[in-house]
């Protein structure tokens, strides 16, 4: 944060203990509750202070709620705001026809494949556009966001540097909404899946989910934040060991690859610059060395059905939250000392 003396985080007497970091939050529907758990655990550690957050889709929602809560009442306020937001998601989901079937509940399968409503909705979304099956453009997420965040107050008292990514439908370019531009529409634009929702229009431009062009974008954290540390909270699996065979799995894998591609490209660029600095080809005074960290649950996420991204059942959301907390706890225990010193992952192995 630009003004350390007014930090929404600072509550310890030993300023040199604090590590300033940036966060990169991926999208992934209800799987974003995993990032809720990660944030909840990070907020408990007063050695970690957040400067900026770049986020997309569900990550953009988490980021906006996080910043709003911090501005309201510091770390505790942020934790309460995140918990309230996800509870609101679950409450809204109770009125949705997309509910786990009896077999899914009995077997603790978090997918919706046996839900008759989902089977009908899935077929309809493949044959009709959201302009046809939802001509009134009803989006339940808008009410959840507006019940969870006072956006006018967020823009006035935003303690973080926020960068929320969306994709411009007309130009195909990325649009990054920053602090003064954060509205409910901006967040919804970042989370607008074109097969589910009509594009979100802002200032005459139409936007789709930011995952197509930045999931999330890393470059704003490099150029507009002081911290060199970026913690990426992964939602979408990078690797899958089995080749998809049915239409749904093929489409899911295509989306995963597409939504990870921009992040992979930026990480390759960071790895390239890091190598040039290490080799002495370019002086570090000319280029910014970045330290990259990752909190992820690849195996856990691979085992979840893509359909479960539409599952807003409270038990499922808290299951994801608890997994996120556990992964963040593991990362803190093993890697927090790397902050400000080095990357805690092998960029070449992870992304190249």
Protein described:
- Helices cover 46% and strands 13% of the residues.
- The longest helix has 36 residues, at 58-93.
- Strands 1, 2, 3, 4, 5, 6, 7 and 8 form an eight-stranded mixed sheet that branches.
- It is an alpha/beta fold.
- Helix 1 (33-44) links the parallel strand 1 (19-25) and strand 2 (48-56).
- The protein is built from 13 helices and eight strands.
- Helix 2 crosses helix 6.
Note the gap between the termini: 31 Å
Following the backbone from N to C, one meets helices and strands in this order, namely: EHEHHHHHHEEHEEHEHEHHH
| Count of DSSP-assigned helices | 13
Main sheet makeup: 8 strands, mixed
Q: What general outline do the C-alpha atoms trace?
A: globular
Mean pLDDT: 90
Class inferred from helices and paired strands:
alpha/beta
Total E-strand runs = 8
Defining traits:
single chain; 352 residues; alpha/beta; eight-stranded mixed sheet; globular; disordered N terminus
In short:
This protein has 352 residues and is α/β, with parallel strands linked by helices. It is built from 13 helices and eight strands.
Question: Which helices and strands occur, and which strands form pairs?
Answer:
Blueprint: E1 19-25, H1 33-44, E2 48-56, H2 58-93, H3 102-106, H4 116-127, H5 130-133, H6 140-148, H7 151-156, E3 161-168, E4 174-177, H8 184-190, E5 200-202, E6 205-209, H9 219-224, E7 229-233, H10 247-279, E8 291-295, H11 298-302, H12 314-335, H13 347-351
Parallel strand pairs: 1-2, 1-7, 2-3, 7-8
Antiparallel strand pairs: 3-4, 3-6, 5-6
């Amino acid at each position: 944060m630009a003004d350390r003396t007014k930090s929404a985080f600072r509550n310890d007497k030993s300023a040199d203990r604090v590590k300033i970091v940036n966060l990169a939050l991926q999208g992934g529907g209800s799987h974003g509750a995993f990032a809720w758990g990660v944030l909840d655990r990070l907020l408990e550690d007063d050695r970690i202070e957040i400067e900026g957050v770049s986020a997309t889709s569900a990550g953009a929602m988490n980021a906006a709620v996080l910043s709003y809560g911090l501005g309201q009442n510091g770390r505790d306020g942020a934790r309460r705001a995140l918990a309230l937001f996800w509870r609101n998601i679950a409450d809204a989901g109770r009125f949705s026809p997309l509910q786990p079937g009896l077999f899914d509940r009995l077997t603790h399968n978090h997918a919706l494949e046996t839900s008759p409503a989902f089977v009908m909705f899935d077929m309809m979304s493949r044959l009709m556009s959201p302009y046809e099956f939802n001509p009134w453009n009803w989006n339940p997420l808008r009410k959840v966001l507006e019940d969870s965040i006072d956006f006018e107050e967020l823009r006035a008292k935003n303690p973080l540097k926020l960068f929320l990514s969306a994709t411009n439908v007309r130009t195909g370019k990325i649009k990054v909404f920053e602090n003064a531009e954060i509205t409910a529409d901006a967040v919804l634009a970042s989370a607008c899946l074109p097969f589910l929702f009509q594009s979100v229009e802002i200032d005459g431009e139409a936007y789709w989910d930011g995952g197509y062009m930045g999931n999330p974008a890393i470059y704003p954290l490099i150029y507009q934040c002081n911290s060199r540390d970026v913690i990426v909270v992964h939602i979408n699996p990078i690797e899958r060991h089995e080749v998809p065979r049915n239409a749904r799995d093929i489409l899911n894998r295509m989306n995963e690859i597409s939504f990870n591609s921009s992040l992979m490209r930026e990480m390759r660029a960071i790895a390239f610059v890091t190598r040039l600095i290490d080799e002495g080809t370019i002086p570090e005074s000319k280029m910014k060395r970045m330290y990259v960290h990752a909190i992820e649950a690849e195996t856990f996420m691979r085992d979840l059905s893509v359909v479960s991204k539409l599952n807003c059942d409270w038990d499922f959301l808290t299951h994801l939250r608890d997994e996120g907390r556990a992964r963040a706890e593991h990362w803190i225990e093993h890697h927090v000392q790397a902050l400000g010193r080095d990357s805690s992952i092998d960029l070449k192995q992870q992304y190249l």
